[in-house]
Design goal:
about 250 residues; BirA Bifunctional Protein, domain 2; 8-stranded mixed β-sheet
Length: about 250
């Protein structure tokens, strides 16, 4: 893993990172913003990256390894439409995303010859593990289930997509989700075991904002960015009009 971090530091040391701390937003709004950043960062000379950190309103997202069978369609929240279901092109299976989770979306320029997808994935996993370790939680990367485990229970999930050799989507970390609620996902590559969260492991409250700041610090350190800044996304990029499909307009998924 140290070799991957060394590669990241060599690759990103002359690049800058713009970090966005977002309020709780709908998943579609943040996807729109990610797509805009992908187009921006894919342009030459590809010397910058972005990092989105925030929370989502309740939603079930189904990645490339997920299926209808992994969603509890009989659950009241699903049948009444309280929790929508969205299919997406990221890796991983089904995620029940909700407040109390930190969502992290790195939008980074990759390069097959010097910093490819496998190396990026290694450093992202290590960053999650390092953040948990800062709070006294021992996490273990489990690439087979696309998650980070604590005592065999998933506390974080990883799902990446790439467009024009720019990464988007990323990971979720369970900070303080209610573990007594009936799960809305059933099985799938990310959920072979009951989940856990930082509050359950520590037995003390943990603020998502505190974990967000720790993640930014470890992310910058592990990837080795020469500079980083905090930015505010333009409102018109993350507020698509009702009734439109702005999240997918003009964007090729593969």
């Amino acid at each position: 893993m140290s070799a991957s971090i060394d590669e990241a530091k060599r690759y990103f040391r002359r690049r800058s990172l713009l970090a966005y701390f977002l309020p709780q937003l709908r998943w579609e709004e943040v996807l729109t913003f990610q797509q805009r950043l992908v187009f921006d960062i894919s342009e030459e000379p590809r010397q910058k990256g972005a990092l989105i950190l925030g929370e989502h309103a309740p939603i079930v997202t189904v990645g490339r390894q997920g299926s209808h069978q992994h969603v509890r369609h009989e659950a009241t929240e699903i049948t009444t439409g309280q929790v929508p279901i969205k299919w997406t092109n990221r890796g991983g299976g089904c995620w029940h995303q909700q407040p109390g989770q930190l969502v992290v979306y790195p939008i980074l320029p990759l390069q097959p010859e010097s910093f490819g997808l496998a190396t990026y994935r290694d450093v992202l996993y290590q960053t999650i593990v390092d953040v948990l370790a800062e709070f006294g939680i021992e996490g273990k990367a489990d690439r087979r289930s696309a998650s980070v485990l604590v005592g065999g229970r998933p506390i974080a999930a990883v799902g990446i997509a790439v467009k024009q050799w720019v990464s988007y989507h990323g990971c979720v970390i369970n900070v303080g989700i209610p573990l007594d609620q009936r799960p809305l996902v059933n099985g799938g590559s990310d959920y072979r075991h009951p989940g856990t969260c930082m509050f359950r492991e520590l037995r003390i409250p943990v603020r998502v904002g505190t974990v967000r700041e720790a993640f930014l610090r470890h992310f910058v350190g592990n990837f080795g960015f020469g500079h980083y800044y905090l930015g505010s996304p333009p409102a018109n990029l993350i507020r698509p009009e009702r009734g439109t499909h702005a999240a997918n307009a003009g964007f090729a998924h593969y």
